[in-house]
Design brief:
By secondary structure, this protein is of the alpha/beta class. It contains 7 helices and 10 strands.
Length: about 250
């Protein structure tokens, strides 16, 4: 790898990510998430940014445009150039062979999923992923509060792990809920810029990730920071912007 790499993955789950918790307080956020996703796609199209959308399989199913169904969201993503769809499990549970198989089945009409993001980043059963056609996954990181730490975000190499390519996360793009609303404008961008510079310097990967539902609060501030990040990334000739699948393919995954 003779350049740095910038990678974005998005855990797209609506209310499924909280179905085993108290999900009712998040209904309003879920109702705003489609607009967040639309704006993200517009930014990615404007700056020609590829991104990986890890989608809960339940969202592929027919149903009303609510917090539990998202076929319209899948179609929006599919229609936007450079975007790639991966899996965030079938129903955001601790998964097994059946769960992974069902997540592939829900997408199989027009997609063959290659990238996987584990529910709550709890890594297990890598052999099941490989058996079901996945080539890569996002490895865990401890970055939920990275934004608040006065340091450069970590950058990593992708590496082989149980027959798959492990692409670790670097920084979670934190929500604007609760006390996080006091995060000043520009701080997310500043941290991302440090991560991009580190990736270029060390020829490694700076991998940011987010939940679109979490961006439905304090949206303008967060997306403004993200747009500045995309502009900065695009200005760097020493940086490649890649999906998880593209990174895996560059390392020999088929």
């Amino acid at each position: 790898m003779n350049k740095g790499i910038f990678c974005i993955s998005l855990d797209t789950e609506l209310l499924w990510g909280r179905k085993d918790l108290d999900w009712k307080p998040f209904v309003d956020q879920a109702s705003r998430t489609r607009e967040v996703i639309k704006r993200l796609l517009e930014l990615f199209a404007k700056y020609k940014i590829p991104a990986t959308w890890a989608i809960v399989g339940k969202l592929f199913e027919d149903g009303p445009k609510d917090g539990w169904h998202g076929k319209d969201i899948v179609e929006m993503i599919k229609k936007t150039r450079l975007q790639k769809i991966g899996s965030h499990s079938y129903s955001h549970e601790v998964f097994d062979q059946i769960d992974v198989k069902k997540s592939q089945e829900e997408a199989q009409n027009s997609l063959k999923l290659k990238s996987f993001v584990f529910p709550r980043n709890k890594i297990k059963y890598l052999g099941i992923l490989k058996k079901n056609g996945f080539t890569n996954f996002r490895g865990p990181d401890q970055s939920e509060y990275e934004l608040l730490l006065p340091r450069i975000p970590p950058v990593h190499n992708a590496f082989r792990d149980s027959g798959l390519i492990n692409i670790p996360g670097s920084m979670y793009l934190v929500s604007g809920r609760g006390i996080r609303k006091y995060i000043p404008a520009g701080l997310r961008y500043w941290k991302c810029r440090l991560g991009i510079d580190a990736a270029i310097k060390h020829h490694k990967i700076f991998h940011i990730w987010a939940h679109p539902i979490d961006l439905s609060t304090d949206t303008n501030k967060i997306l403004n920071d993200l747009e500045q990040t995309l502009v900065y990334a695009r200005s760097k000739k020493e940086l490649q912007i890649m999906t998880m699948g593209q990174i895996a393919k560059s390392l020999g995954a088929s």
